[in-house]
């Protein structure tokens, strides 16, 4: 069976879905898991949708621990939403359990699958259409962090160790260059040099954390704009999705990654890098939305390093794309042969632009910080 297909009857037998099965279709915006939408029609003639996902076990090597994390985190969010008078069917993801009460199942070919509710009346965005939407995304991620502030961090498994350890990510790049598995190193000398020149940046947040100046929190770690569901009627951010990388981390990782993806004037895989830049208005918008939702839970280091975190997370992501390109595209799904190199180049162009704009980014942050205090 090809990797993009599965036996729908096997899935239907595993779950008690509501209504009569109608169809399924792929919905792959992420670079890691394989995602499908399943559609059913219930007794009232209404469409009921579910998300079916094949867990990528070469990335998530311990899928059972991964699902334990997700069940705990979504359970916690469910309770918080209820306490706040909200609707947990919309404001958090909910794992759908199998008929034998498991959060995942293994198919005949040994592949791991799981199911979620499809948040009704919602949509996702691949790129910002207006600043208000980015403000709403910031509030959603800020609220997410806020709701998890009292989650017992010691119960979380580290699904991918050193996920945002940029020092380790650079070491991985050096190892890949050394091995040159795909014979591509000679074609990416400029990009390798770009990364190595910024070696000093890689340890900055880790050092602050080691000194106890940045606290460890429960973080999402993959805060791309397309991981927020928006309400079709109000455009408010309803719910944060893609909880695979929820782990102990630094709040700055989440902020930085949101800016990297959402405040870029071009797509993550834009081929014309002259279109890539940091939109300062979007940076400011996200900053104020994020601080309005999470501000009082952040210390002054967590605020002062917000601009730097945007640059660091962009650099880190570029390093990861470059490493994967050099390794022969073994990690991120690639649609064409130099897709990961294209992605790396956009990230490095964005880093360079952020370096030019860093003084302004710091001034904007100082201003908002003053208004808050
Ligand atoms: C991956 O699967 P997706 O698209 O949500 C990656 C993130 C990267 C992102 C870059 C588990 O996320 O860390 O920032 O691609 N997820 C994992 O677009 O590695
Ligand atoms: Mg993801």
List the topology elements.
Layout: H1 8-14, E1 20-26, E2 34-41, E3 47-54, H2 63-83, H3 88-91, E4 95-96, E5 105-106, E6 112-117, E7 122-123, H4 131-147, H5 166-179, H6 189-197, H7 204-210, E8 217-219, E9 228-231, E10 237-240, E11 247-249, H8 251-262, H9 280-294, H10 300-304, H11 306-327, H12 339-372
Antiparallel strand pairs: 1-2, 2-3, 3-6, 4-6, 5-6, 7-9, 8-11, 9-10
Helix pairs in contact: 4-8, 4-9, 5-11, 8-9, 8-11, 9-12, 11-12
The chain binds 2-acetamido-2-deoxy-1-O-phosphono-alpha-D-glucopyranose (GN1) and magnesium ion (MG).
Magnesium ion is lined by residues 30, 32, 222, 242, 244.
User: Helix proportion of residues, in percent?
Assistant: 40-55%
Q: Report mean pLDDT, rounded to a whole number.
A: 95
Shape: globular
- Tell me the total number of β-strands: 11
Number of domains: 2
Output the CATH homologous superfamily of the largest domain: Aminoglycoside phosphotransferase (APH), C-terminal lobe
End-to-end span in angstroms? 59 Å
| Beta-strand share of residues | 5-15%
Q: Using the CA coordinates, give the radius of gyration.
A: 21 Å
Small ligands present:
2-acetamido-2-deoxy-1-O-phosphono-alpha-D-glucopyranose, magnesium ion
**Per CATH, what is the topology of the largest domain?**
Aminoglycoside 3'-phosphotransferase, Chain: A, domain 2
Helix/sheet category: alpha+beta
């Amino acid at each position: 069976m090809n990797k993009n297909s599965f036996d729908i009857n096997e899935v239907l037998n595993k779950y008690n879905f509501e209504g009569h099965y109608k169809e399924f279709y792929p919905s792959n915006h992420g670079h890691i898991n394989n995602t499908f939408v399943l559609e059913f029609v219930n007794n009232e003639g209404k469409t009921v949708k579910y998300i079916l996902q094949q867990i990528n076990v070469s990335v998530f090597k311990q899928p059972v621990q991964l699902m334990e994390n997700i069940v705990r985190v979504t359970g916690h969010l469910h309770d918080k939403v209820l306490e706040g008078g909200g609707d947990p069917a919309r404001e958090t993801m909910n794992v759908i359990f199998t008929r034998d009460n498991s959060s995942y199942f293994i198919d005949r070919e040994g592949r791991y699958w799981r199911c979620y509710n499809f948040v009704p009346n919602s949509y996702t965005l691949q790129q910002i259409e207006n600043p208000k939407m980015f403000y709403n995304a910031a509030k959603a991620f800020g609220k997410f962090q806020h709701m998890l502030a009292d989650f017992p961090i010691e119960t979380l498994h580290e699904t991918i160790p050193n996920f945002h350890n940029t020092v380790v990510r650079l070491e991985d790049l050096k190892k890949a260059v050394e091995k040159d598995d795909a014979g591509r190193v000679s074609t990416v000398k400029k990009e390798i040099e770009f990364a190595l020149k910024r070696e000093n940046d890689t340890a900055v947040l880790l050092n602050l954390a080691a000194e106890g100046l940045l606290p460890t929190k429960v973080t999402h770690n993959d805060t791309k704009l397309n991981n927020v569901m928006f309400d079709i009627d109000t455009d408010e951010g309803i719910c944060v999705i893609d909880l695979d990388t929820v782990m102990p981390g630094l709040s700055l990782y989440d902020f930085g990654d949101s800016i990297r993806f959402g405040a870029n004037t071009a797509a993550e895989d834009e081929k014309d890098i002259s279109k890539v830049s940091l939109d300062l208005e979007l940076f400011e918008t996200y900053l104020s939305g994020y601080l309005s939702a999470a501000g009082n839970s952040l210390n002054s280091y967590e605020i002062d390093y917000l601009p730097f975190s945007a640059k660091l997370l962009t650099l880190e992501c570029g390093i990861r794309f470059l490493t994967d390109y050099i390794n022969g595209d073994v990690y991120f799904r690639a649609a064409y042969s130099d897709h990961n190199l294209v992605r790396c180049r956009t990230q490095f162009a964005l880093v360079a632009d952020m370096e030019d704009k860093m003084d302004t980014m710091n001034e904007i942050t100082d201003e908002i910080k003053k208004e808050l205090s």
